[in-house]
């Protein structure tokens, strides 16, 4: 890896941390450059434009979250939709995952408004989450794995919205209800 690529990786890591801390509201080119500790001009030396900056930072965050999720729920473990929903829901409200989920909500909202680059980012990350979920479903208890994965993703995203809109206590109660249903 050459010096430029190393610097690009360092900048992408700093930007990913910045987005996780501040969300998308602090994502102007000037704010991103400051967060990375470089000038606007240097930021555009490492990346073609703001779209590429955001895409790289979000891809890095998605990979980080995927790694955390893979550790928490290994692919070798095949679960029923109810058990996978409950176990993944517990992660959604965990303090370590909360910043990722809030940033994901922001990215999806931007994608819903048709904002570049979030339409593509949301499709890529959403597709990755769907594949991750589908790989953990037990085919013996899941007649339609793609449909079940989509339903679980909708439930998890909805849980993140409940936490934002109704508070952590309501989200915790929802997770407990999912866990109780999975036991029966």
Describe this structure as you would to a colleague:
The chain is mainly α. It has one domain (52-183). Helix content is 77%, strand content 0%. It has 9 helices and no strands. α1 packs across α2, α5 (81-92) packs antiparallel against α9 (168-183) and α7 (118-136) packs across α8 (145-166). The longest helix is centred in the first third of the chain and has 23 residues, at 50-72. The chain is elongated. The model has no long low-confidence stretch (mean pLDDT 94).
Summary tags:
single chain; 184 residues; mainly alpha; 9 helices
Would you list the SSEs in sequence order as H and E? HHHHHHHHH
Termini Cα gap: 53 Å
Q: How many individual helices?
A: 9
Main pleated sheet: none
Structural class comes to: mainly alpha
Number of extended strands: 0
Number of folding domains? Answer: 1
Helicity level, as a percent range? over 70%
Mean pLDDT: 94
Task: Outline the low-pLDDT stretches.
Answer: none
Condensed summary:
By secondary structure, the protein is mostly helical. It is built from nine helices and no strands. It has helices at 3-22, 29-36, 40-46, 50-72, 81-92, 98-112, 118-136, 145-166, 168-183.
């Amino acid at each position: 890896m050459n010096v430029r690529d190393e610097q690009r990786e360092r900048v992408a890591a700093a930007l990913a941390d910045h987005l996780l801390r501040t969300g998308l509201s602090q994502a102007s080119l000037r704010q991103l450059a400051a967060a990375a500790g470089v000038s606007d001009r240097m930021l555009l030396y490492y990346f073609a434009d703001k779209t590429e900056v955001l895409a790289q930072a979000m891809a890095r965050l998605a990979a980080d979250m995927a790694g955390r999720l893979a550790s928490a729920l290994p692919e070798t473990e095949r679960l029923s939709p109810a058990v996978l929903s409950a176990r993944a829901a517990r992660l959604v409200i965990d303090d370590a995952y909360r910043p990722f989920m809030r940033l994901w909500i922001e990215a999806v909202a931007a994608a819903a408004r048709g904002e570049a680059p979030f339409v593509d980012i949301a499709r890529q990350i959403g597709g990755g989450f769907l594949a991750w979920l589908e790989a953990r479903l037990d085919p013996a208890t899941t007649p339609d794995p793609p449909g079940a994965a989509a339903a679980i993703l909708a439930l998890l995203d909805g849980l993140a919205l409940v936490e934002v809109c109704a508070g952590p206590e309501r989200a915790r109660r929802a997770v407990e209800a999912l866990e109780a249903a999975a036991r029966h």
